[in-house]
């Protein structure tokens, strides 16, 4: 039996503590994007639109590359639960760096293609250069962004949740300060556009977080009496061979999930400005609400990784499902009850809150299926089942998108386009449940 330390032992208190940390992290990450938008807003609506589009595309691109972060964090959680962090961490670091180098080359190749792709897609010519500036910088800093993210995850997995949050807070402050300096001081002349300046501020904040986080992680390991050793080349090679399909599979699932959310909204855009405005409000409220279940999913992901070092996988899954389910159910009921006030708060005076409220309820109708789909996907990520994850996410295109198309273009229903997502989630959850059962059967 591997040693169990306080932060790897699954209790209601430890789960709640990790989930609360992840909730704070989620809001701080969202807050960084909000700060960027607020800082550029005084420069005019064209810049707001360009930054909004640039961030939207950046999320889509980085959602694939973030598969590496999830793949590494799952393996590190398994090592931490088994008491093998000091041996496994150097292997994971070298294997991750090798794949990260490939991703960075892909990012550098993709950066010059952004402007031609946007032009071919018929985007506003006024926006194209600024969006290309923003994405070019972000893609150029891909390796830095992912490494900083992995470092923060490693701190949380190794029990230093407060330190990881403090490092992110340092990045938040740095991002705010650099936004101001790069946009509103003499430094602004260094950048080709305000959008490029904001992107460099993001990269600068990550450049601050990375060494601070790496030093904190090193000091944590030293305090625990664990000094990383030189990894074996053969072990790194074995790790890399399994890391590539896992990271790409998880990343592919992220992209498909993202497209499954975006495409129905694009279809609804054909129903007119009122439908678009109502959908935007409902989506914003639902996205903010989802930070709660998402924080629980991330906590479940890490604690299941800890348990992979022992024989109690099924008990752990049942316990994690109860904990995460209780938070999701209670918060979901509260969100539905508060829907009129939540929607009104984001509607302002120019959006009819009634259709927005119904669209928010359409999102919430799929919450049970969404819960089991996301939770089981996290468990299978720990088992390195990247192929299963990306395959089930293809149901987005086989089920969710066609249903949304029919709802909009046949029935003229924005509600149906959003509610139809539940069917895809339900089918995916069933497939993932069967895959998880087979995984347990094969491993005893």
From TrEMBL:
This is Probable multidrug resistance protein NorM. InterPro entries: MATE_fam (IPR002528), MATE_MdtK (IPR050222). It holds the Pfam family MatE. The keyword tRNA processing does not apply. Multidrug efflux pump. Keywords: Membrane, Transmembrane, Transmembrane helix, Transport. It comes from Nocardiopsis lambiniae. Belongs to the multi antimicrobial extrusion (MATE) (TC 2.A.66.1) family. The chain crosses the membrane at residues 15-40, 46-69, 89-115, 135-155, 167-191, 197-221, 323-344, 356-375, 387-412.
């Amino acid at each position: 039996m591997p040693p169990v330390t306080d932060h790897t032992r699954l209790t209601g208190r430890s789960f709640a503590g990790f989930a609360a940390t992840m909730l704070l992290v989620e809001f701080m990450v969202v807050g960084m994007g909000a700060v960027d938008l607020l800082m550029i807003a005084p420069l005019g609506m064209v810049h707001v639109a360009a930054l909004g589009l640039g961030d939207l595309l950046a999320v889509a691109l980085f959602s694939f590359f973030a598969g590496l972060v999830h793949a590494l964090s799952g393996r590190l959680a398994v090592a931490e639960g088994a008491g093998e962090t000091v041996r496994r961490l150097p292997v994971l670091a070298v294997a991750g760096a090798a794949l990260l180098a490939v991703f960075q080359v892909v990012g550098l190749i993709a950066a010059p293609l952004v402007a031609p792709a946007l032009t071919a897609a018929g985007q506003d010519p006024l926006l194209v250069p600024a969006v290309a500036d923003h994405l070019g910088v972000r893609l150029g800093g891909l390796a830095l962004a992912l490494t900083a993210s992995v470092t923060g995850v490693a701190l949380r997995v190794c029990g230093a949740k407060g330190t990881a949050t403090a490092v992110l807070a340092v990045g938040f402050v740095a991002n705010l300060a650099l936004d101001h300096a790069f946009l509103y001081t003499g430094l602004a002349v260094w950048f080709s556009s305000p959008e490029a300046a904001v992107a460099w501020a993001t990269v600068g904040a990550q450049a601050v977080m990375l060494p601070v986080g790496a030093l904190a992680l090193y000091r944590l390991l030293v305090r625990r009496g664990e000094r990383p050793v030189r990894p074996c080349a053969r072990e790194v090679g074995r790790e890399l061979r399994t890391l590539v399909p896992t990271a790409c599979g998880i990343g592919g699932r992220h992209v498909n999930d993202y497209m499954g959310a975006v495409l129905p909204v694009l279809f609804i855009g054909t129903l007119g400005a009122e439908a678009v405005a109502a959908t935007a409000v409902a989506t914003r409220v639902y996205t903010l609400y989802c930070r709660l279940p998402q924080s629980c999913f991330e906590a479940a992901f890490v604690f299941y990784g800890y348990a992979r070092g022992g024989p109690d996988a099924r008990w752990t899954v049942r316990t994690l499902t109860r904990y995460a389910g209780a938070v999701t159910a209670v918060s979901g009921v509260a969100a539905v009850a508060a829907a009129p006030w939540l929607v009104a708060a984001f509607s302002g005076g120019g959006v009819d809150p009634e259709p927005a409220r119904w669209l928010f309820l359409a999102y919430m109708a799929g919450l049970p299926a969404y819960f089991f789909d996301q939770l089981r996907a996290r468990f299978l990520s720990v088992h390195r089942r990247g192929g299963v994850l990306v395959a089930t996410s293809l149901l987005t295109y086989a089920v969710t998108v066609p249903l949304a198309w029919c709802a909009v273009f046949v029935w003229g229903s924005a509600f149906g386009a959003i509610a139809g997502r539940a069917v895809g989630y339900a089918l995916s959850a069933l497939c993932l449940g069967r895959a998880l059962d087979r995984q347990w059967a094969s491993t005893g």
